[in-house]
Amino acid sequence: MLAPGPRPPPRPVLLLLILLFAAACSCGLAGAGGGGGGSCELSVTRGGALYSFALAGPTPAHRHGVLSEDGFYKVAVNDSILWFQLCDEMLFNFDPPMCLNCEDCGGPLRCGTQCSALVSNNVGGYDVCTTIGSLSESHLSLIDESNPQKGVVVKMFSPKCSISVSVICDSTVAQVPDKFVVSGRCDYATTFKHPSGCARSISASGSGWGWFGTLFKTILSLLGGYILIGAVYRYYFLGIHSVEAIPNLDFWISLPQRIKTMLVPATRNRVNYNRDGLGAYVSVSH
């Protein structure tokens, strides 16, 4: 009676390994593509260069990036007051908004603490609040599409209003906003300078491998995943507890010799051709 052969891995286990590998490849490709990240991260490619922004990332002089360490920025113009925070919801440890109609941003007792931008306007002698932006409804874009180094615009939305904050690149100073403008019914805009508005990394054209580099990384990822999954399968399910657990080990060992065999004949043919050319000359007596 023949001994039973090795049992194949359970289908759920094999399927899980395949899904994990596919997810890893997807993450690698997404990272290589240079797409945008979170609500305060942006990566764009212009003219063969990669520009990456991370507004909430620390800088030498600002450990919280573009975020206000007070928990909010405040700008007053005439009878209107604008509060906002970038990359987070506002937090008030002092000087909280005192205005009516704050139900959709924390309520009257915690006004301003559940949104990212709020404005107060004096209407009929009363200060009335309007939510103009929330962290969940935000978008990051370049100030100037043809000049990524100029900075970025953070635009936040509420059901009826919006706020656009232009963060201009200035590597030396952080100049907080002191004014804002209103367009349309309820669309606010303000500007300030900050080191976080500068691109974090710039890869010059020609210094990277471009699409070839992405393809090379993808092939390496697929190859590494194949070897890893194959080795796990052979180790745990076939009981091979040695270097033989590596799939197609003979092929990998012989690969350098195969490459050498492919390259050496071309070199030999070129040498033989040169020797034949020299051998064609014969001495002639005069």
From TrEMBL:
Keywords: Membrane, Signal, Transmembrane, Transmembrane helix. InterPro entries: Autophagy-rel_prot_27. Pfam families: ATG27 (PF09451). PROSITE patterns: PROKAR_LIPOPROTEIN. It is a single-pass membrane protein. Residues 1-30 form the signal peptide. Its main location: membrane. One of its GO terms (cellular component) is Golgi membrane. The keyword S-adenosyl-L-methionine does not apply. The chain crosses the membrane at residues 209-233. It is found in: Membrane. PANTHER family: MANNOSE 6-PHOSPHATE RECEPTOR-LIKE PROTEIN 1, MANNOSE-6-PHOSPHATE RECEPTOR FAMILY MEMBER. This is Autophagy-related protein 27. It comes from Urochloa decumbens.
